[in-house]
């Protein structure tokens, strides 16, 4: 493999990134080859590792930098998670290490997803419980007005509590997603470190 084919393969592996990031990464590696000189081309290729390995590092680092640099939306956080997962899965790993990485990603994802769904379910049940109490109060208003007022009062309080919890829970979920991205980034760097030590 020569410099041109190496950079072409690297560009192909980076297709999921925005065009300006791909261009910046390729410019960096072109400069790296230029500084080493034509006679050291094979040595540079050996030192860098395969295009898949370099691409996986670029994708994961890009996702983490993007997360730290901007005030991210949940959509960007999810994109960062997917980029890091893709980087881990596209990295040329040994079969046992790849199996461990996949198992860790899926178990970690399942736990976090279940936790988020449970939180959302609790908030929604509080909100809808308040609405049910409020409606029940209206229905028994003609039969026993003190009980109806109690139900309506509890309904208003619980519904209000549910409404107040929505932004808090949204912020909390966003924070969980950010922590997940950072944890996946650390996992990626650990896997890459173990891979380097293995060679």
From TrEMBL:
It holds the Pfam family HAAS. Keywords: Membrane, Transmembrane, Transmembrane helix. The chain crosses the membrane at residues 80-106, 112-141, 148-166. This is DUF1700 domain-containing protein. It comes from Lysinibacillus agricola.
